[in-house]
Amino acid sequence: MSTDSNTKYVGKAPNRVDGPLKVTGTAKYAAEFDVPDLAYGYVVSSPVAKGRIRKIHADKVLGLPGVLHVFSHENVPGLAWFDRSYKDDVAPGGSPFRPLHDDEIKFNMQPVALVVADTFELARYAASILEVEYEVEKHETDIESKRDEGYEPGRGKTGYMPPQRREDADKGLEQSAHRIRHEYIHGAQHHNPMEMFGATVHYHPDGKLTIYDKTQGVYNCQQYITKIFGLSKDEARVVNLFMGGGFGSGLRPQYELFLSVLAALELKRSVRVTLTRQQMFSFGHRPHTLQTLELGTGPDGALLGLKHYALHETSRFEDYTENVVNWSGMLYKCPNVRLSYGISPLDVYTPLDMRAPGAATGSFALEVAMDEMAYEAGLDPLEFRRRNYAEEDQNKKAPFSSKKLREAYDEGARRFGWDKRPMAPRATREGNLLVGWGVAGGVWDASMQKAAAKATITADGRLTVASAAGENGTGTYTIMAQIAAETLGLPLEAVTVRLGDTTLPEAPLQGGSWTAASVGTAVKNTCEALGEKLLKLAQKMDDSPLKDAKPEDVEFVNGLIRLRKEPQQSVVLRDVLQVSGEREIEVDSSAMPNPVNMQKYSMHSHNVVFAEVKVDEELGTVHVTRVVNVVAAGRILNQKTARSQVLGSVVWGISMALMEETVMDHRYGRYMNHNYAEYHVPTNADVRGIEVYFVEEEDPHVNPLGVKGIGEVGLLGVAAAITNAVYHATGKRVRSLPIYLDKLL
Amino acid sequence: MSIVSTSSAADDQLRPPVPPGSVTLRINGQEHTLRLAPWTSLLDALREYVGLTGTKKGCDHGQCGACTVLVDGKRINSCLTLAVLQEGADITTIEGLGTPEHLHPLQQAFIDHDAFQCGYCTPGQICSAQGLINEGKAHTEDEIRELMSGNICRCGAYVGILNAVKEVAEKELKMASCTCYGSHGHSSNS
Amino acid sequence: MNPFTLTRAASAEAAVRDFSSHDSPAYIGGGTNILDLMKENVAHPTHLIGLNKLPLNAIETTADGGLRLGATATNADTAWHPEVKQRYPLLNQAILAGASPQLRNMATNAGNLMQRTRCYYFYDTATPCNKREPGSGCAAIGGYNRIHAILGASEHCIATHPSDMCVALAALEAVVHVQGKDGARQIKFEDFHRLPDDQPERDNTLQPGELIVALELPKQGFAKHFSYLKLRDRQSYAFALVSVAVGLELEGATIKDARLALGGVAHKPWRDKKAEQLLIGQPATEATFKQVAEAVLKDAKGQGTNDFKIELARRAIVRALKQAAAGEQQASDVFTNSNP
């Protein structure tokens, strides 16, 4: 492309195109759509973890003027019978939970009834006085009591990779000059996006539904609802224009969707159901995970053996799996590896993917163990990592499509000043504070899914691109507008992006860091196809300078179609449309991952994190004062939004390291800190001094855009780097998160 | 096996709803007369009765700050006050600060510094920042951080929020950045 | 939240009268705690008496040189009042260490005293709690009790009082002025909140319907040597695990007068007068402080998850006393003791 382009946007840092809507409160989230004659549903949650509902005494509540109905298993009409109807796109193996299906209580805070009333306040009150009788049975909720009962899941969910082994880990460890073996633990964590789950179901006069739901996948919700309620796709349109944070919580349909659709269909009225913050702790979570890591090196610090075992809970009804240990077989070079993994069912709800599922957990353990191993071997922790650099993916026995982790090490070490780090712990003191520096990193899949898009250009030169992908803060509207504008040489302002609607071409769930690659490629392909159509029209114009040009001979720049070799030979795009007499031109296209490249290469993003902490030794308080996070994730589409994702990941890492834990009282099988005051996530005062850098990483194999996605990778290594820095500051090795102050007293 | 009978309210005596009365609220300079019972929070009144959904419900318990509005120029959590108690007050919501076509300086600064991701906490952050500027108590980066800590951002956009608030506060308070906003620790690169 | 009627009182007397003429009434000031509790179905008043129109928000100097804080003055206005900042910086810092700017703009001084515990079990109607439902049992005992009491607890309740402001008020020997249906009376701060004993449902010694009209601070404000140290699970917007309020009067290196109160450790702000006596006349040294810390925690008892608070409190007392003696902390517009 010529250098005189004003319409080159990819890789730059334009502001978010949806920024003005978000900062003015104009962006509409699921529970905010204004529909006429709305009724409100309020969920009643079980106070017990296991048992049966003996009776629901709804009469009294139904006597309140304005209360419309109390939905429960006692009166839910016949719905789909088979489990498969309740399975969503990412349901793990097993039988999905069916809200209000029968009298069985499977987990604490299970929804047992939905009270619907004319106002929110009345529904809330009626729900609070609804009397429910339960037969309580003995529950089990503590994974610690299941240490020896984990089994390797035979029916993992999509994307589950069974743990691998290569050569002889025990022999490798036996031959090692230095060895370590420790257990690493973190408790349950809940996604807790700012927006609580909610749905507004618009019941149209013809009985069709428009469902505004909080979800990371409108198509996933549509197929779930249509299968259960026997609706056609035309009868259940699902919309999500903006999502107030997901982090995985919206990958599966949550029960507000089922309940609001049920109520709307039965009452033939529009219904809104919003969960409370407390109820946000009643479904999926990152599971409480116990991990054992064993490492051994030769005298030179080369890894000779590695064993990594992880165990976490699942529900009684589904086998939730995540890839916890797999990363340990590929982040470093090691000849002898045994990875193993177990799950154990408890009386809890099925865990659910939460930002960098598996990897956030596994890389925490691996990267703290690597730090421990470095000290055992007497090596600087970064030097130790360099010595064990993986030049190829040993799990897959394939080369990386690209991997600039070494460059990331260099960049990060230089920015952070790592060379000034004394090796010994407790070497730096500032008054009451001990200062420590730590390093860690991680690896995440660069995935791509099938995605479709539609592009429409109108006679006024405005382009609309559309796909049912989602926007949950990642910047989807913005990067799609950038790709579309650049592909067709239009100003960014001339592009409108439409997302999150099942009337638009299908896109994959918004997760896994694959949206940029999948939907971005679909948008690019679609705009290129539209460009070819436009070229053909341009060639029909009188005296067209493009008459004999092939698509590869022209470029779309600055509102023109012009010859690459003779840029002065051009046609104004808008003239093409006007002369053609077409009011609009529309093109559909899609994108698929390249199976050959997928076979041939290991496609991954990497990062490295350097952290500084200051620890008040007497009081145990830890302050994260500086973090440098360097990410190698292929091409960066938007420097601004990408950086924000990584900044946010660092905040998540600080949270994971120091604050976040949902604590269950096993006597009740109930999470007790189920609110935003006692489930701590960082405040503004907890965050300072974060630096984010992207290393240049060209990747011709991963996908046509060369992007790897950055929603998850930035989180990896943060908690471990902080844990390692705490050790460097204090000499105390904490192996269970979060590092509450009492663990350092 | 034991049997428990529960309603989450300890006192499950049936009480008929209190009928709604007429309540007049002055929101963004405009009077709205609503039919409300006393049990409607200011937040629910704004969102469900007036249709101003820019004010967000993030927890409904004063634990997140997403519902922050300005009442007589002071920032408060609209989820923890009753609409009827705010009769006679001047209520400013995010919709009263600016529109997509005419952005308030804080709104523009939030966009420029990418001080949000999902956008759900953003109206509350911006109203809170206006309250902070009205108070005039924050003079350093650390003070802005502390006095913006009543607004949780789960996306973790705090670096951008700090920089956006700082930029506008500096202008509004006519403070020289070199003396008043000394950097504690390292600011992030942009 | 159950239905309720609401009136807005024009005077303290009218409020008290209104209270006595209803079945299940409650006062509402800023609303930040009572509405929270009503939404959680923990509190069920059927009549609310709005106090925000009462002429009780003045902050003014008293005849004997103290300061009178109106009951309905907000926490923010109180913390930032010039007299408070100048003469009672301990109170200024304690208030600003609590809650968030938004909540401090709403919450009133009286409401701060009346706020209820943050015990997880008290707040969750699915679990037993003697404070919420007398006789149902205490689930926090033997449960998750990270934020619970180590001093003065009973077999019926191990909840803590969550206020920061009240810890400073205890140290400053505030007096609570109340209005009841039989007239006005004054309650010494140390007598205002109570220990749980066998009546954990009672947080304080107010008679039903009694209304707080003002808090009075005596002249001595310990403006030179004070400290409010707050330790919590994040830097801001979190309740204290342990907090310490200290006021010292020094003569050279000798302690002439001393006040010491702890937050987050008991059912009430925990002022220890015996410990104060151990400080008076002694040199302001770490050795003295350690001795005092030992004395304060002599009878402390952990409940499992909160065992660490005994050692944490010990160390926090020493640190706060050191800071106060050194005159390190200043009144401020923000609370900053935790920033490195």
Automatic annotation (TrEMBL), chain A:
Biased composition (Basic and acidic residues): 141-155
Alphabetical list of Pfam families matching this protein: Ald_Xan_dh_C (PF01315), MoCoBD_1 (PF02738), MoCoBD_2 (PF20256)
Positions of the Aldehyde oxidase/xanthine dehydrogenase a/b hammerhead domain: 24-138
Region described as Disordered: spans on this chain: 141-167
Annotated GO MF terms: iron ion binding; oxidoreductase activity
Organism: Hymenobacter gummosus
InterPro entries the UniProt entry points to: Ald_Oxase/Xan_DH_a/b (IPR000674), Ald_Oxase/Xan_DH_a/b_sf (IPR036856), Ald_Oxase/xanthine_DH-like (IPR016208), AldOxase/xan_DH_MoCoBD1 (IPR008274), AldOxase/xan_DH_MoCoBD2 (IPR046867), AldOxase/xan_DH_Mopterin-bd_sf (IPR037165)
Name of the protein described by the UniProt record: Xanthine dehydrogenase family protein molybdopterin-binding subunit
UniProtKB/TrEMBL annotation, chain B:
Stretches with biased composition (Polar residues): 1-10
Recorded superkingdom: Bacteria
Region Disordered: start-end pairs: 1-20
Keywords: 2Fe-2S, Iron, Iron-sulfur, Metal-binding, Oxidoreductase
SUPFAM superfamilies: 2Fe-2S ferredoxin-like (SSF54292), CO dehydrogenase ISP C-domain like (SSF47741)
InterPro entries, alphabetized: 2Fe-2S-bd, 2Fe-2S-bd_dom_sf, 2Fe-2S_ferredoxin-like_sf, 2Fe-2S_ferredoxin-type, 2Fe2S_fd_BS, Aldehyde_Oxdr_Iron-Sulfur, Beta-grasp_dom_sf
CDD domains noted in UniProt: fer2
Alphabetized GO MF terms: 2 iron, 2 sulfur cluster binding; metal ion binding; oxidoreductase activity, acting on the aldehyde or oxo group of donors
Extent of the signal sequence: none
Domain 2Fe-2S ferredoxin-type as annotated: residue spans: 21-97
Record PANTHER family: OXIDOREDUCTASE WITH IRON-SULFUR SUBUNIT, OXIDOREDUCTASE, IRON-SULPHUR BINDING SUBUNIT-RELATED-RELATED
Protein name, per record: 2Fe-2S iron-sulfur cluster binding domain-containing protein
Automatic annotation (TrEMBL), chain C:
SMART domains: CO_deh_flav_C
Ribosomal protein keyword on record: no
Molecular functions per Gene Ontology: FAD binding; oxidoreductase activity
Family matches, as Pfam families: CO_deh_flav_C, FAD_binding_5
Swiss-Prot/TrEMBL keywords: FAD, Flavoprotein
Domain FAD-binding PCMH-type: 1-222
Source organism, top-level taxon: Bacteria
Alphabetical list of InterPro entries matching this protein: CO_DH_flav_C, CO_DH_flav_C_dom_sf, Diverse_Substr_Oxidored, FAD-bd_PCMH, FAD-bd_PCMH-like_sf, FAD-bd_PCMH_sub1, FAD-bd_PCMH_sub2, Mopterin_DH_FAD-bd
Protein name as annotated: Xanthine dehydrogenase family protein subunit M
Lineage: Bacteria, Pseudomonadati, Bacteroidota, Cytophagia, Cytophagales
